[in-house]
């Protein structure tokens, strides 16, 4: 029997009380069973910690005394992670039950696949999903002005983006990173550059990964839903 890869799911919370319960429940319902969940809370003041306490028997949860930012907190989680793969996940994302399994299986196609991403669709802050939702992201790309954008963002999902294909990078809202790539592209022990307090850190990782010869694969049948508060 083939070995099942171990996945560490790393989540950073900051005043995420409205979302984090549903997010964690969607991770715990994954059909890829060999995983751990690591949550770093950045000194939330909205009751997020009260919700996290209810998951302490199923997750490893750490509390910072101040908000150190998304990138730095993700680095804390990655340093504690034991997985062959690291899934960075935003607390306002819900995953289909086969999301992680789909990504891991695709990532094993080629050892130079360092990042794997799925199709994220938009949902409202009240977890409402229309019959024809908008695309949130199918990977990231750079336009001629070197601004990074989410592929397909704000397009109506009409069943397109259905091909496995290589893309420039992945949004860290739900990106699966190979441990070997993390080790290879990290600088001074940091995978995400902590100078990016929040946002843009995933584009920086994509640049470094491309320069080091790593590929990012888009997997169309791995689906999730994302509440996006800030567009690039």
Name given to the CATH architecture: Alpha-Beta Complex
Number of strands: 12
Overall radius of gyration: 16 Å
What does the largest sheet look like? 10 strands, mixed
Q: Specify the number of helices.
A: 6
Which blocks of ≥5 consecutive residues have pLDDT under 50? none
- Fold-level CATH name: Spore Coat Polysaccharide Biosynthesis Protein SpsA, Chain A
Count of all domains? 1
Instruction: Please report which band the strand proportion falls in: under 5%, 5-15%, 15-25%, 25-35%, 35-45% or over 45%.
Output: 25-35%
The CATH class: Alpha Beta
Looking at CATH, the homologous superfamily is Spore Coat Polysaccharide Biosynthesis Protein SpsA, Chain A
* Structural class computed from helices and strand pairing: alpha/beta
Q: Report how far apart the termini are.
A: 43 Å
Kindly state the percentage of residues in helix: 10-25%
C-alpha geometry = globular
Question: Could you spell the SSE succession in H and E letters?
Answer: EHEHEHEEHEEEEEEHHE
Q: What does the average pLDDT come to?
A: 93
Offer a concise description of the structure.
With 232 residues, the protein is an alpha/beta fold.
Question: What would the keywords be for this entry?
Answer:
single chain; two-stranded antiparallel ribbon; globular; 6 helices; Spore Coat Polysaccharide Biosynthesis Protein SpsA, Chain A
What report would you give on this structure?
The protein is α/β, with parallel strands linked by helices and 232 residues long. The protein has a single domain (7-226), classed as Alpha-Beta Complex (Spore Coat Polysaccharide Biosynthesis Protein SpsA, Chain A), CATH 3.90.550. The protein has helices spanning 20-28, 48-53, 70-80, 99-107, 179-185, 201-211, and strands at 7-13, 35-41, 60-63, 85-89, 93-95, 113-122, 135-137, 140-142, 148-150, 165-167, 174-178, 215-226. The strands form 2 sheets. Strands 1, 2, 3, 4, 5, 6, 7, 10, 11 and 12 form a 10-stranded mixed β-sheet that branches. It has a two-stranded antiparallel sheet with strand order 8-9. A hairpin with a 5-residue loop joins strand 8 and strand 9. The longest helix is centred in the first third of the chain and has 11 residues, at 70-80. The protein is globular and about 40 Å long.
């Amino acid at each position: 029997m083939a070995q099942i890869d171990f996945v560490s799911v790393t989540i950073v919370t900051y005043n995420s009380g409205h979302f984090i319960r549903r997010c964690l429940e969607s991770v715990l319902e994954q059909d890829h069973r060999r995983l751990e969940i690591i949550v770093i809370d950045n000194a939330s003041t909205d009751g997020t910690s009260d919700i996290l306490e209810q998951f302490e028997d199923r997750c490893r949860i750490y509390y910072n005394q101040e908000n150190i930012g998304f990138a730095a907190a993700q680095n804390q989680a990655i340093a504690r992670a034991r997985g062959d793969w690291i899934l960075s996940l935003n607390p306002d994302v819900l995953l289909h039950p086969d999301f992680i399994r789909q990504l891991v299986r695709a990532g094993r196609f080629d050892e130079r696949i360092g990042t794997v991403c799925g199709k994220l669709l938009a949902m409202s802050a009240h977890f409402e999903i229309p019959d024809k939702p908008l695309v949130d992201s199918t990977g990231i790309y750079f336009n001629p002005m070197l601004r990074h954008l989410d592929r397909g963002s704000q397009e109506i999902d009409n069943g397109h983006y259905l091909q496995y294909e290589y893309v420039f990078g992945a949004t860290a809202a739900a990106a699966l990173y190979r441990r070997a790539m993390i080790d290879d592209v990290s600088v001074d022990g940091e995978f995400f550059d902590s100078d990016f307090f929040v946002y843009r850190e995933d584009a920086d990782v994509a640049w470094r990964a491309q320069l080091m010869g790593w590929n990012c694969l888009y997997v169309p049948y791995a689906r999730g839903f994302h509440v996006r508060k800030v567009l690039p």
